[in-house]
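Dear colleagues,

As part of the handover before I leave the project, I'm documenting each prediction I ran so the next person doesn't have to rerun anything. This entry is a single chain, and its sequence is reproduced below.
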Amino acid sequence: MKERLKEILSEIAKQYEFEIEEMSVQPDYVHLFVSAPPRYSPASLADILKSISSRKMMEEFPKLKQHLWLGKLWARGYYVGTSGDKVTADEIKKYIRYYQHHTEQLELFAKESKRPTNKPPPLGGGC
């Protein structure tokens, strides 16, 4: 599902002639660094990406709606920042990559900690 969402977001960007320069899709959030023509306001970009991707994901994964809060793929809000003098495009890309890697490491750790071991249970059965 994660890879399909990435594909859908990329398809939307191509269709609307803007570029996703960096993307990270995680279980509870998505980071996008987008370069778009000035005809698109940040609000319209968010609306385009969220509405079309939500519709396509619901069509392709009908059971997804059952697992979402109020059956909605996206929360109402979003954050918009810009690159410029104080924050460069490279810094934003590094930030997105860092959090993607960090989240992947946490997921691996969680999987490892749930793996059954051959150790006996602790003495006393305490909580």
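Confidence is low (pLDDT under 50) at residues 117-127. Residues 2-101 form a domain with the Alpha-Beta Plaits fold (CATH 3.30.70.1290).

All the best with the project,
I.
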